[in-house]
Amino acid sequence: MKKAFIFDLDGVIVDTAKYHFLAWQKIAQALHINFTQEHNELLKGVSRVRSLDIILELGNVEASQEDKDKWLIQKNEDYLSYLVDMDESEILPGVFKILQLLKDKNQGIALGSASKNARPILEKTGILSYFDAIVDGNDVSKAKPDPEVFLKAAQLLHIDPKNAIVFEDSVAGIQAANSAEMVSIGIGEKTILHEADYIFNDFTFVDENFIDKLIN
Ligand code: B16
Ligand code: MG
User: Fold this and answer.
1) CA–CA distance, 7 with 141 (Å, rounded to integer)
2) Atom 1 in ligand 1: which residue has the minimum CA distance?
């Protein structure tokens, strides 16, 4: 049976959270806001605009829309500068193996990400051609935990949401998959992603037997 396998990007395919952190930290420092790695967890799977609001709330800073727009541009320019040298070595362990396995088994493969920079990242890391459909931050009006991003991905693959499987590293993403009535698979910490149907530390723990079970 053909199923839809939908991958989140940041934290599932590549670890770009570290670059988002460095770029947000510069903005926070300029505003004298204490922004730590722990705070960065709050931004996973969250849109760029909402991320800035969260940082400003952390520092009790109020700002005009004009300033916010300026900081959003600065943050993205800085973030993009970290992506310049990105290549396939940044693909997280086990991801290639699973993408190839799904291709060999003729399954639908899609991306479902909040990032507006998803396409260049897939290009730079050399895995764009694995994806039959891409839905990213440019294509949705409602952010995770709204299921819009995953429902659109399944629709583009012409596969019923009930036959879709989502790989996610964020709580909001797992909630989005659950409310789309898709199988949710958490990639990361059990304690954080406990709402997922299945949880793995990373893709090296996902084997062919498990994939076959999802397909059949
Ligand atoms: P951008 P995902 C999300 O990607 C990140 O987890 C989140 O930290 C980031 O703010 C968001 O993309 C927007 O990214 O600034 O590149 O548009 O995890 O949904 O793939
Ligand atoms: Mg993510």
Assistant:
1) 19
2) 115
For the stretch 3-27, pLDDT in tens is 999 999 999 999 999 999 999 999 9
User: d(Cα 83, Cα 89) in Å, to the nearest integer?
Assistant: 12
Q: Which fold has domain 4-15+88-215?
A: Rossmann fold (3.40.50)
What pTM was computed for the model?
0.95
Ligand 1 atom closest to residue 17's alpha carbon, by position in its atom list: 8
Per domain, the residue ranges of the chain are 4-15+88-215, 17-83
List the CATH code of the domain at 17-83: 1.10.150.240
DSSP secondary structure string for all residues of 127-174:
-GGG-SEEE-TTT-SS-TTSTHHHHHHHHHTT--GGGEEEEESSHHHH
How far is ligand 2, taken at its centre, from the CA of residue 11, in Å?
A: 5
| The amino acid at 88 | E
